[in-house]
Design brief:
283 residues, alpha+beta, Rossmann fold, 7 helices
Length: 283
């Protein structure tokens, strides 16, 4: 079979970097336990925390943070993701292999938006129990299965020994916005630590319809709030609502030195309409 996955053929990683993304928080020892397992395979692993503050059980939020972070990680990195409301059930564990990055974790769609950014990918079911930590906890597969399998991958274990390639994996895609002539309908993909509201509209599509300085009416439920499209937060007055394109490449709704989430009273998954206007402000 032709090798499409050059960085991982024969277990030859370009560099020993392992990242972690979870909803564990930091008040427990869960993250340290996973890192301890990885360290038992190699003392030279470069370990990077993407986030451990993903809202509990929020797979979509985890997928967003992962997909917008992985492109900036070293080629050859192994990404262990554990946002896993199905832990201990019949849901499978998987390894997702792309031509630049590898993902280890639950089969619940968490890795698919990130993997698609790198083109072709393969998915392997984790089934070889000899690669696990024993005994395996029913509630902590992140430590006993996923971190352990990631450690074995660093030592060169082939994917065929981890399990069979599968094609019926759980898929996940970000909700597709509806783009009309004077209106864009989307939903909240993520709310960051600054309480910026990140939508599902990609910036390049947005720029086909609008220019800096254009006025926008933001509609959430029964409320309609005016805003302006600005290059960044400081182009509007303090506490003023604005629309901008964030560093992640998606349209976000923000308040300069304030909270867009509180101003708009929204959560992840809420629907938002952006009504475009011919009115504009010259900065």
């Amino acid at each position: 079979m032709r090798r499409l996955y050059l960085y991982y053929s024969q277990g030859e990683l370009l560099m020993h970097t392992v990242s972690f993304l979870t909803d564990f928080g930091f008040s427990s020892g869960y993250v340290a336990q996973m890192k301890g397992v990885i360290s038992s395979f190699s003392s030279e692993v470069n370990m990077i925390d993407i986030s451990h503050q993903i809202p509990a059980q929020d797979i979509m939020a985890g997928a967003f943070v992962l997909s917008t972070t992985v492109p900036y990680m070293p080629k050859g990195s192994v990404h262990v993701g554990v946002v896993d409301p199905g832990v201990g059930t019949s849901r499978r564990g998987i390894v997702v292999v792309t031509n630049k990055h590898l993902f280890v974790g639950p089969d619940n769609g968490l890795f698919l938006p990130a993997a698609r950014k790198f083109g072709l990918f393969r998915v392997y079911e984790i089934s070889n129990e000899s690669l696990f930590q024993h005994p395996v906890s029913n509630t902590f597969h992140g430590r006993d299965i996923f971190a352990s399998v990631a450690g074995h991958i660093l030592t060169g274990v082939s994917f065929d020994l981890i399990g069979s390639e599968i094609h019926d994996y759980v898929d996940l895609s970000f909700p597709e916005p509806v783009i009309e002539e004077q209106k864009m309908s989307t939903e909240v993909l993520f709310v960051d630590d600054f309480e910026n509201v990140i939508t599902g509209i990609e910036g390049n599509r947005f720029l086909q319809k609008i220019s800096v300085g254009d006025q926008i009416m933001i509609q959430v439920g029964e409320q309609s709030i005016p805003a302006v499209f600005a290059k960044s937060y400081g182009f509007v007055s303090t506490d003023e609502l604005l629309v901008t394109i964030g560093s992640h490449g998606y349209v976000e709704l923000s308040v300069n030195q304030g909270s867009a989430q509180k101003r708009l009273r929204v959560q992840r998954g809420d629907k938002i309409d952006l009504h475009l206007s011919d009115d504009r402000i010259d900065f």
